[in-house]
Amino acid sequence: MFKTQIVKLLSRKYATKTKIAVSKPIVEIDGDEMTKIIFAEIKNKLILPFVELGRDYYDCSLPNRNATKNQVSKDAAEAILRHNVGIKCSTITPDEERVKEFNLTQMWPSPNGMIRNALNGTQFRESIICRNVNKYVRGWTKPIIMGRHTFGDQYGGKDLTIEKPSKIYLTVKTGDHEEKFEIFDYKNRGVAMVTFNTEDSIRNFATSCFRMALERQFPVYFATKSTLLKQYDKLFNDVFLEVYEKNFKSKFAQANLTFELRLIDDMAAQAMKSSGGFLWALKSYDGDVLSDVVGQGFGSMGLMIHSLISHDGRTIMTEPAHGTVTRHFREYQKGVKVSTNPISSIFAWTRGLQHRAKLDNNPDLGSFAQTLEKSTISTVEEGLVTKDLAPCVFGTEFREDQYLGTSEFIDKVAQKLGKLV
Ligand code: NAP
Ligand code: MG
């Protein structure tokens, strides 16, 4: 009896000193402003004290993208394909003002486009549910996973201004054969747009969504406006049906899960009165808009998880669902205590580590990541929150002493985590 107690005590003491071993590295992509500060705190207080983690580091902050002529973004994208897990901090997408602010030689693009093209994946977003955070849509008690296609449509298309009375045509050239379609006869100034998509990319998107839904045991709804776009959206619908029938129907039946094609307006209305608990697949533009609507409906954008998963399911990039929070960073630069919510960034780390754990069959790492997520949620559920969550927890008349600064919040999570691992 005495001997077992000593062994237990010793192993507990030993356990607190032993970090979880991870055999393969993750790709760490650093970024800008407030999220850069938050990422460093998360790493130093919540990850590295507990996990012996190899990190292939790329500094994609705007000054370094400028110094390397953006080579660093290309290198980071390639590294993610090599190591299969990328954890990315938010980065500035420069505009004219940023070009002046950082004295840039060019308006370097965001690394996201490059990584998105390299991964050719699906973007998934999901809100973290905390019991005490009042949701704007009260009925949503289960998560809604938003699956967004990230190829073509308005994001790869061409839009232009027509200045004078003109006619526009669409020409399809197949070998030497040309077919011309008249689109519109302008009597005055106007605009035009052409978008495109491919069957292969839609097939990959559908496969990712069905695979994710099976993993999470959620039914799938794919919503388009196929009554309006009888060729364009019909191809999306046909491909979803084909992939489902061929590869997923029996697995879905076994798991008692369903798949339905929906009209987007009908689905938007249905979603509002649902209790959540489904995967909502959407074309790129619809996913961009509706994932923000759903994120806010669950309480705060600061509670959103964001990941990009390759269509074969092997490679993942996680990042916060928000930008670099410039307004808060300006305060931070002045030395003012800021209260930016780090939860979306914490979950970028945990979801990246969970994927590493799954690929390497490392249950210790997987359960560490889950414990960190639980510690974060239970900190919020004890009423310890950053300013953005204060109105959702204490009402709009909340007091200044009812919320914590960013570092204080991370410290509270670290205390909880330290007791659990
Ligand atoms: P943002 O960084 O998402 O912030 C917009 C506002 O949302 C903030 O001012 C703040 O509102 C609130 N907010 C966002 N995240 C928050 C958090 N974690 N905690 C509390 N409040 C939060 O968007 P932005 O100001 O439009 O963009 C800033 C920079 O980020 C831009 O340079 C943009 O290019 C970049 N960006 C990068 C990515 C990416 O890397 N994936 C994505 C989007 C934007 P209050 O001011 O009301 O407190
Ligand atoms: Mg958006």
TrEMBL record:
One GO MF term attached to the UniProt entry: NAD binding
EC number: 1.1.1.42
Positions of the record's site feature: Critical for catalysis: Y155, K225
Swiss-Prot/TrEMBL keywords: Glyoxylate bypass, Magnesium, Manganese, Metal-binding, NADP, Oxidoreductase, Tricarboxylic acid cycle
UniProt keyword Ligase present: no
SMART domains reported for this sequence: Iso_dh
Chain positions recorded as Mn(2+) binding sites: D265, D288
Cofactor note: Binds 1 Mg(2+) or Mn(2+) ion per subunit.
Superkingdom of the source species: Eukaryota
GO cellular component terms, A-Z: cytosol; mitochondrion; peroxisome
Residues the record lists as binding NADP(+): T91, I92, T93, R98, K273, G323, T324, V325, T326, R327, H328, N341
Residue ranges occupied by any Isopropylmalate dehydrogenase-like domain in the UniProt entry: 25-413
Family annotation (NCBIfam families): nadp_idh_euk (TIGR00127), PRK08299.1 (NF006156)
Family statement: Belongs to the isocitrate and isopropylmalate dehydrogenases family.
Name the UniProt record assigns to this protein: Isocitrate dehydrogenase [NADP]
